[in-house]
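Notebook B, p. 112. Complex prediction, attempt 2.
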Amino acid sequence: MPSRIVTLRVNGAERELIAKPSTTLLSALRESFGLMGAKRGCAQGGCGACTVLLDGRPVVSCLIPVVTVEGSTVRTVEGLADGDRLTDVQEAFVDHFATQCGFCTPGMIMSATALLDRNPNPTREDVNEAICGNVCRCTGYEPIVTAVLAAAERRRAAEGATELTEAEV
Amino acid sequence: MLTSVQVPESAEEARAALQDGAVPLGGGTHLMARAADRADGDLRLVSLRKAGLGGIDVEGDTVTLGAATTLAEIEDDDRLGHLAGCVRSIASPPVRGLATVAGNLFVPQPYGDLAVALLALDAELDVLGADGARSESLERVIEDGLRPGDLVTRVRFTATDAFRFYKASRRRLNSASIVTVAARIVVRDGLVEDVRLALGGVARRVVRAAGAERVLRGAPLNAEVVARAAEAAAIDPFDDAYASAWYRARVFPVHLRRALLGA
């Protein structure tokens, strides 16, 4: 089967690549677009290191033939920060020492971002469940869970402050 | 080796593409994970992602799930709260964002927990074949399979408060089944009036525990009866990385009791 051109919206920009049937979304991101955040760990959907948001949902990008997601919107860890300004989840990972070797971190951050986008008030159990597909061999998970809860708290505080400002106006 | 991936835009087009050994691709969480292992010959896939087979429809008690509906979509749908426990016991959020309803019906054990639930609920499948659309019971399809080139388009079942789901696994989250029990069970005046029982993890395919159902039907729902029902269930466990066949057989009665009696 011949290669074909696939268009995706990646981190807000239209991107094109020439894909073989076996080209996965992960290899498109890493090898065609040079986005090295998502990692190739197990390549079987088991470790979560390749987690990205596909049309807003966390998915393991290693299992997706990229030709099947033509026209989709993809968000990777590179699409989170605004220049040097990290997102609340990224800040919290730094503040709470939630990263050691860093291999799982982009996937963890995407899973955590997806959780907070849907559930701004997660319990510790919600966080455990959200990251249960992301394997970390360094941290023992506790600093990661703490960071995600702290990010949620920070986001709620920021949103509370915004509401206050709007109310004052 | 993965040599072709077609992405048809309708169910009919998808069915027509299922020729010469091409197989349907749902979320790819099973097929794609093993694509690299297939050194022998071609793997040719027909993706259902754009074939218009998604969607969840609830009319009264009747629930219809499109074949390509993802497990994440089920999880997020408040109308399907009765399936939430089952779906959330399967893999992890980034896998459930891909894995599909129909895909789950055809993955080998110890996966396929949604299939166990749907078998207990006596689900019907809409199947598109070379000679048109037809309806098949999931039970028959699990026993005999589909004809080559058949495509499941929808899964339909009746939601009921009588549904129970229980899964024992090595870890509480993101772990395959050691024993899965799904039941539709109605108890009236202390006696089991009606029961339909499906099991996962205890045989190479999802099984209906008809022998156990016969013991339960008409009997009081207590530990002694459930123990006899467990003995009457035809199970044929296997060894894998999660548990040995011996272990599965040993703990099956315990988990059946927990599933049906909560203790």
